[in-house]
Amino acid sequence: MYFFYYFPVGLDLRIKRPPSITYFLSGLCALIFILYHQLPHTYGWRLTLLIFHPDNPSLATSLTHIFLHAGYLHIIGNLIYLVIFGRLVEDRFGAGRFFLIFALSAMAGAWTHTGLTSLWSPQYLRYGVIGASGATSGLLGAFLVRFYFGRIRVAYWIFMPLQGVNRVGRTQVPVILGIAFWFIYQGVYTALQYGIEGVQVAYSVHIGGFACGVLLSLLFGAAPGARSEAHLTKARRYFQQANWFAAQGEYINYLSLRDDDAEVHAETARAFLCSGQTGRARYHFSRAIEGCLAGLERGRAEDIFAAGMKAIPGYTLPGREHLDLAFSLERSMKFLSARQAYQNYISFHPESAETPFVLLRLAGLQERRFNRPREAWSCYRNLVDFYPDDSWADYARAEMDRLRGKFVLLGAQGQ
User: Fold this and answer.
1) Would you say the pTM of this structure is higher than 0.70?
2) Which of 7, 158, 217, 408 would staple 222 via disulfide (CB 3.0–4.6 Å)?
3) Does 205 share its domain with 245?
4) What domain range is 276 assigned to?
C-alpha cells in the first residue's frame, strides 16, 4: 500500500480586514451539520430538502446542498479549505464578490456534475449531492488567479512500506504547484469515477466549481491586483532574507502601480534605512505620513512620524505639517516623541514665526512631564535671547524668574 496525503494549514499572505462572511458561512455549515446529524426528526426539521438531486435538479438545491455534509471528515475538510483560502479571497475581492464566487461556484459544480453524469454514467443520477466542495473549489480557482505568487503551508503524510518510508511533516509549496497538483488529482478521479462502482465522491463538482472560480475572478478584475501584490510579496520575502536592494526594487515596482499605499511607503522607508540610504527613507516616511493623514489615520501617522524621527537624526516634515503632528503627539500623551518633534523643529526652523511658541511647549514638557526644570529654564532663556521682541518673551521672562526662585529654594534645601 502506497499512500500520500496533504492538506493546507496556512498561507504566507497577510489579511487586512476581518473576513466576516467567511466565518459566517463556516459557522452556518457547522450548525446545519449538527442539526442534520443530531436532530434529524426534531421540531419538524426537513433538511433533506436541501440535497441536490441530479435526476431532479433545481436552482435552489444547487446552492443549498453546500450546507449539508456526510460526516466529520467531510465537513472538516471543507471548512479547512473555506477558512484558509476564503479569508484571503474575501479580503481582496470584498464580501459581495466573495459570496458570488462562493455561491455561483457551488451551483456551477452541481450542474457540471449533472451534465457529465448524464452523458457518461446516467445510472448515478439517482444519487444526491451534498457538501461545500464545489464552493471551496471555486475559491481555490479564484485564489490561484489572485495569489499565484503565494506559498501554501501544507501538512503531509507519505507512506511507502516497501521502501521503509513513513514520513509526516510540514512544508511550504508554491501556490501554482499546490493547486495544480490538486487539480490534476481531481481530474484523474473525475475521469475514473464514471463507470466504476463504489466511488462516492462527486469529483466533477470540484472541476466545475474550480473553473467557475477562475472565470469569475478574471471577470472581477483580479489580474491587476495580482500583478501589483506579486511585487509586494517578493519585496517582503527579500526583506526577511536581508536582501535589501532586491527588496527595494520590488517595493518600487509595487509603488509604481499603487503609489497611494501608505503602509508600503513605510515598509519601503525601512528597506532603504537598512542599506543606509536615509534620503530615500526620508522621502518614503513622508509619503507614508501624508497617505495616513489623507486617509484620516492620524494615530498611524503619529506612529510613522515617531519611527522616522527615531531612525533619522533631525527628521522633519514641512513646517505646518510637522507642528500639527507634534501637537498631536503631545495630546496623545506620546511625550518622548513630542519632545523630539519640538527639538527637531527648533533646530531646523529657527527663523519660523512659530518657533517661540514651540519653545514654550517644549519647556512645559521638560518641566511637567520629565521633571527637568533646568532644561525648561534653558528653553525660556533661548526664547528671550533669540526672540526678545516676540509676544511670548515677557511670559518667558516671568517663567525664568519663577524657576530661578525654585532653584534657590532647592539649593537651600540641599537638593
Assistant:
1) yes
2) 217
3) no
4) 231-412
